[in-house]
Amino acid sequence: MGNQATIRLTMAQALVRHLAAQFIEIDGERVRLCAGGFGIFGHGNVTCLGEALEAHREELPLWRGQNEQSMAMAAIGYAKQKLRQRFMFATSSAGPGTTNMLTSAGIAHTNRLPLLMLCGDAFATRLPDPVLQQVEHFNDPTISVNDAFKSVTRYWDRIVHPAQLIQSLPRAIDTLLDPADCGPAFLGLPQDVQGWAFDYPLAFFEEKTHRIRRQAPDELEIADAADMIKAAERPLIVAGGGVQYSRAVSELTGFAEKFGIPVVETIAGRANLVYDNPLNCGPIGVTGSNSANALASEADVVVAVGTRLQDFTTGSWSAFSKDARIISINAARHDAAKHRSMPVVGDAKLSLSALMNKMTDYATPQSWRERAAKEREDWDSYLDVNMSTVTKEGSNRPASYAQVIGAINRVCDPNDRVVAAAGGLPAEVTANWRTHAIGTVDVEFGFSCMGYEISGAWGARMGQAETEPDRETIVFIGDGSYLMLNSDIYSSVLSGMKLIIVVCDNGGFAVINKLQNNTGNTSYNNLIKDCNLAVEPFAVDFEAHARSMGANAETVESVAQLEEAFARARASDRTYVICLKTDPYEGWTDEGHAWWEVGIPEVSENPKVASARKELDENRKQQRVGL
Asked: DSSP string covering 469-534, please?
């Protein structure tokens, strides 16, 4: 290092010290970039990385989760709540502790969210090989289970010498903050290398203040997009999650209102506009609304802002007219160029402002605006009926998801945050939730991961508590997801991060049973009663289970009781779980769905399946042929 001032530290000590020296400027306030992390220690990370983390426990607080997968999910929930401006890390030992995080890495990768994974690895020297939990590859000793993360990370490295950290750790952090390439970063940390010492330059530990890059759009792309919109007779804006990450909600709203362009939202883009904005025409796609999908089918120019245009948004590319022209505004070139879109590669906030300046003389035709208003009004009327608790006299059917969602929507604070993921609830929340405050909805339906609900909400609550401690984080979860991953109820109680969890028990995986039936198949292996059983099917006592983990809990029998229970949950000093039965067969939100392509057997002896296949082939004719 010549005459450069240095300090001798282990690789693990240097990693933690560098991480603690990173800051970010948010709305003029300088805060630590990494808010801490989640960790379960084992032999692969406790002795060296654990020693370093303990020494920095004030700057980088470490929370012990109950499962590596759920810890990483909590870090993802935190990052999403903070609009990708801050992140948390998750650390595990070698072997199964690490592979438990693969699913979480998939969530972060799919949803373009920052997650730093610091995972143990086999010895770089290989002297003690094979070691505990090492998976041996006979023909390639450089491979470990950590290589599995290459397919679900944006940045991957294995630190085999302490000096490599000087290059690799800043690159990982850059990836976490890059709007165009944001996603999970993985560092494999061999057990021996964690403890190896190196003379690190003191400059490596100087405090650094980051600012998230805003990429200005190309002037020619803006000009082309402006010309296309100005020629439109039926324009439509599709607002994705990138609008919020860019903090471009005001620009989106101003752009839509100035030109009178209807706005529809993706699943990730829910809560870009408040419900009562007259230009908010509902969610689009497979889990969308009649209003949004009707407008999408007739729009001649679609302005997609901050969305990756996945199949639930596009109805497997059947939602838009084949003749519709798409303008895609996105910081990521890969997303901006999808399906013959006219790309505007750039930050949403800057791009919308630039477009507005180019379109001073445009106004959406009045007939299209009136059509959008009528579609919106009709959908709103449908929701009133769909979420109504008025039932036929003498009916004793359990509540529907829509009724449960409507009840919580009525009694919660406008700024409370709702979290849902996978199963039937994402569709029902997306379609039925009436947003009263910007950025208050987190529906994880990119990777559609069961189990994210409670763990992601735990992390989201940490972020929410920093700025809005008086607001609630509300979880909608089905019995299937609850049974899959629930241990962070205990984590939330231990950490004082209160959640309100609504458990909708419909006796199994009811929405997949619905899909199974709708494609002509017989109910099998989804509802508990339709599985291979050695005993009569029985219901889980979710209330007792939640209480055993330290939460307050109760079971209710009706939507009216649910509303009363929510008041008690709000008054509770700790996580509160409310359980109720919901209907596995009736009460689904059947309106508003765009077509969704799923695989159906081309040959089957079941005539219902054969009929479903014929319908699939017909619907394929409506697909927009893209790239």
From this structure: TTS-EEEEEEHHHHHHS-THHHHHHHHT---EEEEEE-SB-HHHHHHHHHTTPPP-SSBGGGS--S
